[in-house]
Design goal:
The protein is α/β, with parallel strands linked by helices. The chain is 47% helix and 13% strand. It has a 6-stranded mixed beta sheet with strand order 10-7-6-9-8-11. Strands 3-2-1-4-5 form a 5-stranded parallel beta sheet. The longest helix has 29 residues.
Length: 368
C-alpha cells in the first residue's frame, strides 16, 4: 500500500478513536490493542477508494425504567445528540478522505426486549421514530439495517414493514435468529470466566439491569433474590447476544465493527455515543440537559427533574430534554449524575448559544 494510503487510513482511525469510549483509565491502551486489525479493515476501503463502512449494534429501545431514567418510549434529545455525534464523526472522515464514511445502525431491540418487559410495539415505535429523526435532521451518514438483513425468513417478509407486520414477525425473528446462530453447547459461565470481553459485557448488563428493572421485578423480592434474578437475565442476554453477534458478522463481514460496550479493544471499537465521562453514555438509558454555558450534561431523568435550576423543554408536544433556567446556575453535589457533553455540530452550538427557538414551549411540569 502506498505511503499516502497508510497515512490516510491512520488519519481515519484517529478520528474514530476521538469518538471512542474514553471514560476508563486504560482507554487509550485498549484502543491501541486493536489498531493493527482496524487499520487492515480501513485500508481495504482506502485501497478501493470506496466509502468506509462501519456497523454499530445499538439503539434498541428506551429503558424500562420510566420512573427514574427516561421520559417515555420514544427517542428524544439524547438520541439526537448521539446520532449527531456519529454523523459528525463521518463528516470529519470525509474531510481527510473524500469518499467519506457511513455507519449502519443495527438495532438489537427485538433480540432482548421480551427479557426486559419491553413490548414489541414499543420497539417498533422507537426504531421508526429514530429513522424519522435521522432523516429530518439530515444525518446523511447514518443508515439503519432491516430484519431481513440479519436472518433468513422461511417466508418472505413484506418489502415495507408496517407496525402490524413487524410485531407479527417479532417472535419469528427471535426464533430464526437463535435457530440459525445460537449454540446449544454454549457454556456462558465458562465464557464469562475466560473471555474478558464477555465478562465486561456481563458486568455492564448487571449494572444497568439492576436499575432498569427495579420497578418491574424489584417489588416484593428481597435484595438478594432480585440481584440473583438480574444475574440470570444478564446471562440470558449474553446467550442471545452471541447469536446476534454471529448474525451481524455474517451480514456485515467487511464492516468496521463498533460497539457500545467496554471491551479489550482487540476486536471492536468501543464507542461513546454521548461525550460523557461516567456511565451515562448511551442515550436510551438517560436524559440530557443544556446548561447556560452551552454544555450538555447527561444523567437520570429524575435527578434533573428534582433540580429546581432546570426546566423541561418540550419538542413536538413531548418532553425532549432539560434546560438550565436563565436565572439560575446548576449546583450538583453528585458528579456521577451530571456529566458534560460537548456540542459537536453548528446546530447544537446554536442551541447552546441562543438556547431554544421561540416555537419550542417550556414547562416545569414533566408529566405527559
Amino acid at each position: 500500500m502506498e505511503v499516502n494510503g497508510i497515512k490516510t487510513s491512520n488519519a481515519i482511525l484517529d478520528i474514530i478513536f476521538d469518538f471512542a469510549l474514553n471514560k476508563f483509565d486504560d482507554s487509550l491502551v485498549r484502543l491501541s490493542a486493536g489498531r493493527p486489525k482496524f487499520l487492515t479493515i480501513i485500508e481495504l476501503f482506502v485501497i478501493a477508494g470506496t466509502q468506509v463502512k462501519m456497523c454499530l449494534p445499538a439503539f434498541p429501545f428506551k429503558s424500562a425504567n420510566k420512573v427514574e431514567k427516561v421520559f417515555g418510549v420514544l427517542p428524544d434529545k439524547s438520541e439526537e445528540l448521539a446520532l449527531e455525534r456519529l454523523n459528525s464523526m463521518c463528516k470529519r472522515i470525509k474531510d481527510v478522505y473524500p469518499p467519506g464514511a457511513k455507519i449502519t445502525i443495527i438495532s438489537d431491540g427485538l433480540t432482548y426486549n421480551d427479557l426486559l418487559n419491553i413490548p414489541d410495539r414499543d420497539t417498533w415505535a422507537y426504531g421508526q421514530a429514530l429513522r424519522t429523526m435521522a432523516s429530518q435532521k439530515g444525518f446523511d451518514h447514518i443508515d439503519f439495517s432491516r430484519l431481513k438483513d440479519l436472518v433468513k425468513f422461511p417466508l418472505p417478509l413484506p418489502e415495507k414493514l408496517e407496525e402490524i407486520t413487524y410485531v407479527a414477525n417479532a417472535t419469528n425473528f427471535r426464533r430464526f435468529l437463535f435457530n440459525q446462530y445460537g449454540k446449544d453447547d454454549l457454556d456462558i459461565d465458562y465464557e464469562i470466566a475466560t473471555n474478558p470481553d464477555t465478562r465486561m459485557t456481563y458486568l455492564g448488563y448487571r449494572r444497568f439491569l439492576e436499575s432498569d428493572l427495579r420497578y418491574i421485578y424489584g417489588h416484593g423480592r428481597s435484595g438478594h433474590s432480585y440481584k440473583k434474578g438480574v444475574k440470570y437475565l444478564a446471562k440470558q442476554m449474553l446467550i442471545r447476544g452471541y447469536a446476534f453477534a454471529g448474525a451481524v458478522k455474517v451480514a456485515f463481514p467487511e464492516y468496521l465493527r463498533l460497539s457500545i460496550h467496554q471491551s479489550t479493544g482487540e476486536h471492536k471499537v468501543s464507542m461513546s455515543l454521548l461525550d460523557s465521562k461516567t456511565g451515562y453514555t448511551t442515550p436510551w438509558h438517560c436524559s440530557v440537559a443544556l446548561m447556560a454555558n452551552g454544555e450538555w450534561i447527561s444523567g437520570t431523568m429524575i435527578s434533573f427533574k428534582e433540580n429546581n435550576a432546570l426546566e423541561i423543554v418540550y419538542e413536538n408536544d413531548r418532553p425532549s430534554h432539560f434546560r438550565e433556567k436563565r436565572t439560575a446556575r446548576l449546583y450538583c453535589s453528585d458528579a456521577e449524575d451530571l456529566v458534560g457533553i460537548q456540542p459537536t455540530s453548528e446546530k447544537v452550538k446554536e442551541h447552546a448559544t441562543n438556547f431554544l427557538p421561540a416555537s419550542v414551549s417550556l414547562s416545569a411540569n414533566s408529566e405527559r
